[in-house]
């Protein structure tokens, strides 16, 4: 009986393998109607970033990016969706143009989104855009790039991180960074491990958490203090 059982299982396996190696053509689409999906097509697809839900939980904003292989450039903008109506309501909240990089959206209130961009400023700064009329305003004007923005309505403050040197302000760190970049030698002395992360050397500057007070009255958002 044991031998018969093994024989039966082996026979089933052969039948299954026969279907695998000789599939019916009817199981496949007409390949003449389709284009091969290759890396060239893949890198030109639009990519969606992390979404941000509005305080009233009825709207979503997310970044959308696309790579241009010819110019070796990337562009990114913000998209807005009314989730009570579905994805068909999605529109561009900021313009989708070359060399523009609007990213990391967060909600200030139900009609205002803050995000990171350069847009002609000296570094990556905080901007706001209205979901009502699409008006874009610059909120901060730092000389050092910021990232990881978070807003607290209760505290009336905006938190972010920026790379600074120990004992220096953001502006002082920019001056120090420029001084190092203009040195005649690029040598660096490392006094402890580790010295490299992925493709970057670990230098003396570190990401520091900052907060700034902001006011939000009559749909006018302003910075009211220093980091």
Automatic annotation (TrEMBL):
<dbReference type="InterPro" id="IPR011042">
    <property type="entry name" value="6-blade_b-propeller_TolB-like"/>
</dbReference>
<keyword id="KW-0732">Signal</keyword>
<feature type="signal peptide">
    <location>
        <begin position="1"/>
        <end position="18"/>
    </location>
</feature>
<protein>
    <recommendedName>
        <fullName>Dipeptidylpeptidase IV N-terminal domain-containing protein</fullName>
    </recommendedName>
</protein>
């Amino acid at each position: 009986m044991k031998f018969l059982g093994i024989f039966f299982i082996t026979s089933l396996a052969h039948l299954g393998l026969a279907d695998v190696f000789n599939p019916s053509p009817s199981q496949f689409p007409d390949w003449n109607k389709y284009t091969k999906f290759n890396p060239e097509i893949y890198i030109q697809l639009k990519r969606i970033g992390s979404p941000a839900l509005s305080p009233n939980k009825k709207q979503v904003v997310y970044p959308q990016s696309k790579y241009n292989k010819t110019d070796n450039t990337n562009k990114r903008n913000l998209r807005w969706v009314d989730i009570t109506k579905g994805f068909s309501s999605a529109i561009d909240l900021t313009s989708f143009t070359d060399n523009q990089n609007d990213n990391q959206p967060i909600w200030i209130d139900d009609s205002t989104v803050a995000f990171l961009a350069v847009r002609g400023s000296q570094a990556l700064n905080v901007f706001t855009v209205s979901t009502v009329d699409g008006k874009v305003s610059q909120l901060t004007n730092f000389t050092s790039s910021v990232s990881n923005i978070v807003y607290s309505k209760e505290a009336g403050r905006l938190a972010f991180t920026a790379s600074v040197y120990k004992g220096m302000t953001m502006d002082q760190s920019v001056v120090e960074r420029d001084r190092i970049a203009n040195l005649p030698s690029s040598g660096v002395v490392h006094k402890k491990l580790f010295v490299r992360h992925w493709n970057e050397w670990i230098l003396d500057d570190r990401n520091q958490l900052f907060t700034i007070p902001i006011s939000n009255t009559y749909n006018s958002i302003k910075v009211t203090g220093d980091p």
